[in-house]
Amino acid sequence: MRRSVGLVLVAVGAFFLTLAPLVRYYVADRVAVAPLNRYETTRLEASNAAYFDGATLKLRNGVSLVAINTIRGDVRANGGDDRIAVWDSTTNIYDSAAPGRPVQLQGHRIAFDRRTARLVNCCGANADGDNTVRMSGYGLLFPRTGVHRRDYPFFDMATKRPAPMRFNGVEEVRGLTAYRFTQHVPLTRTAALDTKVPARLLGLDGADREVDRYTEAYNTVWVDPRTGIPVKHRENVRATVQTPDGKGRMVVTQADFVTVPQDQRALVDTADATAIRVALVRAYVPAGAVVLGLVLLLVGGYFGLVRGEPSAPSASRRPDGRFGAAARA
Question: Average pLDDT, whole number, for the chain?
């Protein structure tokens, strides 16, 4: 009986020792990846902002702007290749005093490797409908395998080109120790507008003028180094239109957007929950399986090798049906 119990314990212990590397190197790679069906809404606000009101043809100063960013994962867009996630991101910017009248609408689709978070060019990826742009670097996420204190190339959708996201320090965000990165998107011509603008709005005299749109931004991102999830954004954006010769110009949007506190808290909670799941499959479960497997092997080996006390010999039955030796006459 002891040998049977020992063999069972040895077999179970061997199973747990085999399970440990399976969880660490196979299951972990499937848990520590970006989800396919992501849905997230984040609110950013900018006080003392300015924008050009096309309805009144006036520049409105000292207003409060709101930017609602929504991310939706398209689970079917990757064509069955689950190594790739496809996310649509839309941003609606509006004056808080007139929520029904948008100031600007932005939208883009990115496709990226779910493990490394690097962008790939497939699956209808586009920037504001332009699907000819070739994306590179990173998009909405940092590396899922861990963020280091170095620079990362991040693709800017407005200028349709990458700009370095530079490590700038460590800072606490809602109780989370985050890495702070900064990015400068230099003044870049982003579009030639189809409509002409009155010369007086550009500070010029004469007839209406053709203009081009230019954008410049200073972005700051606070990211969870364990999971690559950004938990806070600050986007200082300045958009202008100017004549091709640069003599006339006008501010279209100038705002310093920051993620509102309640959404910072929600993003930190998401990062913490993700980090716990990753830590379980990368460290705690494999370590526990190894310890339990070794204990079971030792106990099973003990039961299998150590023999029990020999049992007393059974008495033989006499011809008269009784047990024991027959009495002497």
Answer: 86
